[in-house]
Design a protein that fits this description.
This protein is of the alpha+beta class. 22% of the residues lie in helices and 40% in strands.
């Protein structure tokens, strides 16, 4: 699976799956990084969330192999 990085911390693969990187402040104002996943064709805005890009890619790739 090939991932293309676009500006503003956004990745997309050849199937249209997307990953967006967000910096979120926790209750103690510490910056936490979250990667929000969206499966192409899902009606929900987000299909999942991880704390690393590698994990986000693995989750989307795994779910893609299950559906093919």
């Amino acid at each position: 699976m090939n991932w293309t990085k676009f500006p503003d911390d956004w990745w997309c693969n050849e199937f249209g799956d997307q990953i967006h990187r967000y910096e979120i402040l926790d209750d103690e104002d510490r910056c936490q990084i979250e990667y929000h996943l969206h499966h192409a064709g899902d009606r929900l805005p987000w299909s999942g969330k991880t704390h690393t890009l590698a994990e986000a890619q693995r989750q989307l790739e795994h779910s893609r192999t299950l559906t093919t």
